[in-house]
Amino acid sequence: MSTSGNERFFDKDDIIVSKTDLKGRLTYANDIFLSIADYKEAEVLGQPHSVIRHPEMPRAIFKLLWDSISSGREIFAYVVNQTKFGDYYWVLAHVTPSRDNKGEINGYHSNRRVPDRQIIQDTIIPMYRKMQKLEDSMPNRKDGMAASEKLLTDFLQGKNQSYDEFIARIQQAA
User: Fold this and answer.
1) Distance CA 164, CA 23 (A)
2) Distance between CA atoms of 157 and 49, rounded to whole angstroms?
């Protein structure tokens, strides 16, 4: 799908909610998700969550996200998503594993809020562009993602912060 270049916004009081199974296939999407992404419920249920993946989103961020939630940890991540018709919208996603009554992970739950615009402009977009450029410069996707992941790791080590600390600190500073 091609991108339109048009940014969409949602209300600061809105929360985009989705749930997936262990494979990342959508099992629930609230009305706000459906409205901003231009989908009907029947179009997305059973589809991979990547149906809203924007092509300029670094793959290494999704790897970090999946590594975190599949190991039972929550994660906060800034994500640019793409609508059915190619528009885009930024979110601050809080993704957590869902558990059954035995404590086993049986899916994932994501709440997404309006991100701080200054954080997106000053920190996230420049970082993601560097990561994406590195990913695109490699001969294959696997090497690109590994190089991008190393770029992020080196950046965080330079700040002497974990990814979670970095995200928490940029939010506190806003």
Assistant:
1) 24
2) 30
Instruction: Name 107's bridge partners.
Output: 98
Model confidence pLDDT, tens digit, residues 83-99 = 999 999 999 999 999 99
Categorize the per-residue pLDDT at 42 as very low, low, confident or very high, splitting at 50, 70 and 90: very high
Compute the distance between CA of residue 114 and CA of residue 17 in angstroms, rounded to an integer: 12
- Assigned token pair, 86: 């190619």
- Which 3 state secondary structure label does DSSP give 170? helix
Q: Model pTM greater than 0.70?
A: yes
Q: How far apart are CA 173 and CA 102, in angstroms?
A: 39
In a 3-state reduction of DSSP, which class is residue 164?
A: helix
Question: Is residue 18 a contact partner of residue 49, using CB atoms and an 8 Å limit?
Answer: yes
